[in-house]
């Protein structure tokens, strides 16, 4: 399978950044070839990203395929509650996994631990994917304080890792 490339739009600290995500045996993000340590290649304008991909010979889908509003997540992190959009949180968690895998960084969201797995599973099943959810049924997770705290810790860690590696 040949790598497929997509544009991600990310809002963090009230700034919009564009990144290149790829689908492969192991999904990841394109890193900046101009830095000694691994950093995420990112752009302030979509046009600059498209110019980069053209010069690099990367065939990319030109429409933004995913948007992440981490400012909204940061607002939730100031006062974590059980009001959790399973789709947004699962997508963001998966983004953090791809970022940390790309950069070779340890991430608590990737650890195989019972409490962590339970939180991830609640997000996953809370998406009510048609292939998994019986017709006419809907799963709405009930969150404990401990689970909310675990989710908040993982999201805080992911945001910090992303923020550090966009500079």
TrEMBL record:
Protein name: Uncharacterized protein
